[in-house]
Amino acid sequence: MSEPLTRSLGTFVSNLRLSLIPTDGLEVVRTGFADSIATLIAGSVEDPPKILHATLAPPPGDATLYLVGPRAPAPEAAWINGTAAHALDYDDVALRGHPSTVLVPAILAEGEVLGATGAELATAYVAGYEVWADLQRRDPAQHHEKGWHPTGIFGAVAAAAACASLRKLDAQKATQAIALGASQSAGLVANFGTMTKPFHAGRAAHAGVISARLAAAGFTSSPDALEHPLGFLAATSPKGDVDRTSATQAGREWSILALGLSVKKYPLCYCTHRAIDGALDLLRAEKLGAQNVKSITVSTSRRNATILRNSRPQTGLEAKFSMQFAMASSIVANRVGLRELTDEFVQRSDIQALMPKVVVAPDDRIDPKRTGNAPYDQVVIETADGRRLESARVTDERGSPQLPLSREELWTKFKECFAVGNPKLDAEATFEALMTVERGQGVGALAGMRKAA
Questions:
Q1: Which of 93-97, 148-152, 364-368, 375-379 has the lowest mean pLDDT?
Q2: Three-class DSSP category at 406
Q3: Half-sphere exposure of residue 178, counting CA atoms within 13 Å on the CB side?
Q4: Domains defined along the chain, listed by start
């Protein structure tokens, strides 16, 4: 008989070592650290982390904000950094949510306190990733459709596992940490398009640090908190059809190899990315002025259509969850980047005039390879002069594991994020350190990398 789920995941976390992780999995770890730290630095100048920092008013502590910012206690540092990393919604995607934006801030904060090596940082990331993957695979339904934000609910458990790994907790205490994380799971889709969405990520990172610390100190929790009929999996399941009994795959079938990470090319909700790729490719082939657009129809999954709740956004935050804005920006600017995600650009008359012409057509067919997606997304533009322009049927968005960004493309995004958030930081030195993070000296080797005067 297999070990109960919560305990088996605790055992996996306590036994995991860098030497057990497949080499190809470490490439995913490097990408996760690099992309999350890039978006953390870019997001550090946004209002959500600024307001959170001012409100928490943490005393000086032993962890660093934004690599070179003020110091704060590790739980608050994880909270603020996690919120910054997700503030622009530009961070990587996998496992129905945003794993790196939770895991990396938690690992950086607690890893700095503990003086963890690069090997320990990388191992902690894989511990968190695999726990997250094992939990999300157990439910065929889409948590978004119930109103749950997977980043918030799975992230708290995964961050607890990562911090338990950093603290080298034994199997019993790692189990306690995971169970504690489960009771701190939260996040509502209704809050998408506001500052509360990145707060979900930061709060999950904070929960991970606190959970592992409490478990290390002897704080108790239920060793069946995940699989119990009134536990995490049952409570968060959209339809109650959830696997609470099968053996864990963590450490036996490496999800980090099978699923990897998708790195965003555009700072919008990932549900828009297939359509943006299709629209921009179409517009490169067919020159089209906004004044000649009669209508735009976007076919995407019903889940995506539900998540993209803002049909008439007025702010940059709202626009991140708007297919209408994504299409309008593609046509007007021929791009959808950070400089388009401003209140001023969203409120431009030509953008506002185009958005009502965008119709989202929900597709109820299921992509057998990717839950929550339709088999493809497609953009169709009807022009005022009677033409019908159809994009390709986009099955794989750029930046996905199927069409990964090259190292050069990842570096381009990284340096642009540093230029936005803190141009005084040495982006190149930091990037190179992250490309060998598992062989480095830990957080201390990343902090304080400023350009020479």
A1: 364-368
A2: coil
A3: 37
A4: 5-258 (1.10.4100.10), 270-390 (3.30.1330.120)
